[in-house]
Amino acid sequence: MKPALPSLAEAKARARDWRRQQADAGTPVTHSAALEHVAHALGFRDWNACAAMLGRQRAQRLAAGARVAGRYLSQPFTARIIRATPAAGRPGWVRLELDLDQPVDVVTSTRFSNLRRRISGVIGPDGHSRERTSDGQPHLVIDPLAPDGDS
Known about the structure:
The protein has helices at about 10-25, 30-40, 45-60, and strands at about 65-70, 75-85, 95-105, 115-125, 140. The protein is of the alpha+beta class. Strand 1 (about 65-70) and strand 2 (about 75-85) form a beta hairpin.
């Protein structure tokens, strides 16, 4: 039986740790060399192949029909994934389309509301989008502790 592959974030952390160990031992290496070392240790020909596989692995865990929890524009939600695909050109990033159990209000004004039942966004290996609100919060956050809807 093959051991489970790490997440993309875990693989990058391994590369940082190995690079730090090498520097402490007096043999500094570049970040790209550390990534290549981790890729080879995991059985891949290079970092690009490794990152692509780890990105697909995340997309498969976040498959259509799976239940997730998170926040959209700081509003908590639970949802069913309609579609999850690897984001083009962004290893480890996943494009999600979600059907929310309850609509969320995406407007903070007290004068009107705009309820959304379906949302889409791209999340990175850390579970949140790159885009941020004016107060610095990610637009979309998927809770990694509840990928199957279990808290």
